[in-house]
Design brief:
With about 180 residues, the chain is an alpha+beta fold. The chain has a single domain, classed as 3-Layer(aba) Sandwich (Aminopeptidase), CATH 3.40.630. Strand 3 and strand 4 form a beta hairpin. Bound molecules: coenzyme A. The site of coenzyme A has 20 residues, from strand 5, helix 4 and helix 5. Coenzyme A (COA) binds next to strand 5, helix 4 and helix 5.
Length: about 180
């Protein structure tokens, strides 16, 4: 899957997230504002959990041929966040989920939506996935808005990692229709 390891968006470049990105991801995982809605207990992540997550992401890429990308500013190469597609078991069903997180200094600039759109283009156009799901805590209004902007539709409430979440779905057909092509 060499062809999908790097991608670019109007404002960003991205490449397959690896253990070499530890310093940037660690910094993100220590911001309370970001982890409030990202970690299971709403707290910054201990370093060993960040390390383990990066190892799991590499294993995911090897196993499924896709995973997370690290996104950087196109001009300055500043770290802006990470996003991508991950395979999960949701209520017994193998489900590909869209995930995203942006450094808080850059929130509300449309970057999560841009990262997610690039990830979905890969998912639907290269990987030929029929559907991608995404879920979030009910009070994560920014994340819900990102999903709505991308065309996701609310499906059902689930329990994920022991927490109530709203699950949304987007089909390949709706994605292509929404892209106007
Ligand atoms: C959720 C997150 C990824 C959004 O990133 P972002 O780059 O700010 O997202 P975008 O700018 O693309 O879109 C955010 C939208 O939410 C809206 N929004 C932000 N805060 C909001 C709030 N409290 N209530 C309602 N809408 C809100 C913004 O106005 C924007 O919508 P608009 O373009 O119609 O104005 C970012 O807040 C984040 O990284 N949070 C921590 C990690 C996380 O929760 N990840 C998602 C896990 S499901």
């Amino acid at each position: 899957m060499e062809g999908i390891e790097r991608l670019s968006t109007p404002r960003m470049v991205a490449e397959r997230l690896t253990e070499a990105d530890y310093a940037d991801v660690r910094r993100m995982h220590l911001y309370p504002q970001i982890m409030k809605t990202l970690s299971v207990d709403g707290q910054p992540l201990p370093d060993h959990v960040t390390k383990e997550g990066l190892i799991q992401n590499e294993a995911h890429w090897r196993r499924h041929g896709f995973g997370l990308w690290i996104f950087r500013d196109r001009q300055t190469r500043q770290f802006l966040g990470r996003a991508g597609l991950q395979s999960y078991s949701i209520e017994g069903q193998e489900t590909v989920g869209l995930v995203y997180a942006v450094i808080h200094d850059h929130w509300n600039r449309g970057l999560a939506t841009e990262m997610a759109a690039a990830s979905l283009d890969i998912g639907f156009r290269e990987l030929r996935l029929p559907e991608v799901a995404s879920w979030t805590l009910p009070d994560n209004l920014a994340s819900r808005r990102v999903m709505e902007k991308l065309g996701f539709r609310y499906d059902t409430d689930i329990v994920f990692a022991g927490l109530p979440n709203r699950l949304y779905r987007l089909t390949a057909i709706d994605w292509e229709l929404g892209r106007g092509c």
